[in-house]
Amino acid sequence: MAYESTHDAPRAIADYTRALGLDPSLVIAWYNRGNLRLSSGEIDSALSDFDETLARKPGFVMAYNNRGIAKVEKGDIKGALADFTEAIRLDPHLTEAYVNRGLVRFHEGLKAEAEQDFAQSIGMKPSLKDFIETRLSQISQK
Questions:
Q1: Cα(140)–Cα(135) distance, rounded to whole angstroms?
Q2: Are 62 and 81 in contact (CB under 8 A)?
């Protein structure tokens, strides 16, 4: 999908849509289109694409993580936490899922659980410490 690399999301989404029209079994096309839709603010469409990705490939870890992000955007905190937790269950080394779940937990007032997630992610990738501290500062200011 050439337009994806040029940051032309609408054309890239259209390309993935055409590809899926020809072969709906292309799991990566569902996932990539979901990511583009998520980054474009098309949350409901992104959720639909991630749902389809997971229906076709239930163990697709990053689809759980990214669907969790979309659910946060939708306000479905319980669903987001479930998706981040499932991503962690499938890949206990996925630092992104620990960070995402920790940020949601922190925002929801679950400080002890959030700290556990942050410690786990920083333990695996120490460079995340500054990012986490910046995000926590942003959340606290809201």
A1: 9
A2: no
pTM: 0.91
- What's the CA gap between 117 and 136, in Å, rounded? 13
Q: For 5, phi and psi rounded to 5 degrees?
A: -75, -15
Helices 111-124 & 128-141 angle (0-180, nearest 10): 160
Specify the higher pLDDT residue, 6 or 80: 80
For 130-140, what is the mean pLDDT? 90
Q: What 3-state class would DSSP assign to 89?
A: helix
**CATH no. of 1-76:** 1.25.40.10
What pLDDT is stored for residue 2 in this prediction?
42
Q: Residue 76 has which token pair?
A: 């479905």
User: What residue ranges do the domains of the chain occupy?
Assistant: 1-76, 92-142
What mean pLDDT, rounded, does the chain reach?
Answer: 94
The average pLDDT across 67-93 equals 98
